[in-house]
Amino acid sequence: MYSIPIWKKSPFLRLLLPLMAGIILQWYGQLPVLSCWYVLGLSFIGFVTFFFIPYFKRYKLIFLSGIFATTLFLSLGALLIWHRDIRHDENWFGNNYHANVGLVATMEEPLVEKTKSFKANATVNFILENEKKIPVHGKIILYFKKEVSDEHTDSILSQLNYGSQIIFTKSLQEIKNSGNPGGFDYKRYALFQGITHQVFLKPGEFELLKTKNETRLNTFLFSVREKVIHIIRNFIPGEKEQGLAEALLIGYKDDLDQNLVQSYTNTGVVHIIAISGMHLALIYWLLSLLLKPLQQKRKVRWLRPLIIIAGLWFFSLLAGAQASVVRSAVMFTAIVIGESLSRKASIYNTLAASAFILLCYNPYWLWDVGFQLSYAAVLSIVIFMRPIYNWFYIRNKILDFIWKLNAVSIAAQVLTVPLSIFHFHQFPNYFMLTNFIAVPLSSIILLGEILLCAVFFIPFAVLWVGKILSWLIGIMNSYIEKIEQLPFSLWDGLQINIVQTILLYILAAGTGFWLLDKNKMGFKIALLGLAGFLLIRSYSFIEANRQQKIIVYNIPQRQAIDLLKGRNYLFKGDSDLLRDDFLRNFHLKPSRILNRIPVNSELNNTSGGNNYFDWDSKKILLINSSVNFSETEKKPTVDLLIISKNPKINITNLSKSFEIKQMVFDGSVPQWKIILWKKDCDSLKIPYYDVSERGAFVMKVD
Question: For 565, phi and psi rounded to 5 degrees?
């Protein structure tokens, strides 16, 4: 029996792939925008002209239409990513901004409370300079310092909300990465949201304007959001339960317990907390059930798809319109429209079409982890669920249903595992146990929360629904935490690069072709992908065993140094970095994973003195307190001098005591001192490195 190739059943797939290629090519290659416009225009003309060629000639030159279509959407992808970059906007505030000018900014969200400050994203509306009011675009992050006993400050902060406008003259700070090896690219993450700068405002450094700049839709959504949060906090007992309920229903994560989030992540069910396709599927099912009577009446039948689509998009906007939920909303919208027109489209084409639309709207979503995992999970279930389910034939309907749920969980992992390892460097070994209970239970909780909001005005009902929900959430949290505590629950510290990730997908694709189409070529492709993956992975371990490095981390107000030897390390730095799980995992762990350093591989400090010691062929001097060195005729060589904390030292005197080859100022040194010491180093011709400015310092030891 002849089977139609997937690329013929899914025409949008042939448009999506060159669009994605153009997006990636432009972001990493920074192609001239004018050239992209030329290619787009010529490709469009060539594509249209092709259809004016006589049919018999057109058939022979059919490959030309493919070339024109590919270059057309390739250039379209490049132009989309270029125009999405706020820095290319003529009215971006960065083009006209300099220190000491005034800025008028509008808050785009309510204040979010942090440990020492309040935070909110804001849009810059105007630059005020020489009595001129220059309209501009762009987003920044506002931080407002907390004042413990200042009632006036508290009253001003209490007035700040969505739409509030403030004016200030304090200089903006460009958002930068820490530059630590393997660290999160926060600068790119912020840029993808149109945010390029931030400012820390103390009392008296800003003024609240009387005017407000808000839209009715956002005002309505924030008011509904606040009402939902108010209902949850009033009627669901327990802070941990409330935090999870808020995240589960509307994606509000500010009240989530961080340890609980880590437990959900480590057990493979963090997708429950993130608003995703599962939530939209439940909303779609509920609306379809409630509106079923409309399907029976011809005159009002058209109302059913409109109400369902409106309900799906209202929930998506209420949840913050994140990539995963918008993707699901687009896909379910396509399904609803298809059903109303009595047409069944290929699921592959529907997925490709929704991805195409989303990337045209926001090409940055291509790098969104939720976007990637969402499509990988759905595609994986579509391809592998049925073959996995067919492994066993079970007559008992209850057991068969249980096996079907497990088959879905297993199938979803096939294409999501490579991405999960690449981004999160871990694999939950008991994901089947957690998903089997957590997925259906979270679905019941979500429906219960919708019921809670529906009956909030009935005192007796809302109290009982709230107590039941708190009990169910407590059961789910307790179950997840107990699974996390089981031995070998998490395979942590995994590290694969982008090439290895691609080879794993080649392995999965080849295996899929082999199993589904009985294609021997698929088996060969799978073996080729596996061989390539194992070869690169083996080489990376060989290199890791040979490595010898000195890493001075960029951690504000803290000293942190790793001395690597093979897959072992010696840590020198502040002890609170070892006690605080968040600080260690955020600043140190990514680097150690990148360098394939196991968790329990710290070496004993046998390298000599505490501050002056040898590390293989390098002599290292660490200065973290005030000290005087005597001048000697024969100056000892220091290959690396690391200055930490706030010592009282004189660089000129140091140069008389040591032959300094390289000086490093770590993140714990006050900036005003670094500025002075840099001038001394320049005059003495001593090479220096400021980690606060340039990121972590890494020295390879030969």
Answer: -140, 105
Q: Give the domain extent around 195.
A: 93-214
Report the number of distinct structural domains present in the chain: 4
The last residue of a domain, from among 53, 84, 115: 84
Report the alpha-carbon distance of residue 246 to residue 231 in Å, rounded. 10
Query: pLDDT of 329-342, one tens digit each?
Result: 887 787 777 677 66
Q: Residue 280 corresponds to which tokens in the numbers above?
A: 């939209």
The Cα–Cα gap between 105 and 130 comes to: 18
Residue 636 contacts by C-beta under 8 Å, 6 or more apart in sequence? Answer: 619, 658, 659
| φ and ψ of 441, to 5 deg | -70, -40
Which residues are CB-neighbours of 69 under 8 A, at least 6 positions away?
14, 15, 18, 43, 47
603, 569 contact by CB (below 8 A): yes
Residue 505 lies in a domain: yes
DSSP code of 312? H
Q: Which residues contact 528 (CB under 8 A, 6 or more apart)?
A: 506, 510
From residue 366, give the alpha-carbon distance in Å to each of 20, 354, 369, 506, 698.
8, 13, 8, 20, 31
pTM reported for the whole predicted model = 0.85
Do 47 and 101 lie in a common domain? no
pLDDT of 111 > 80? The answer is yes
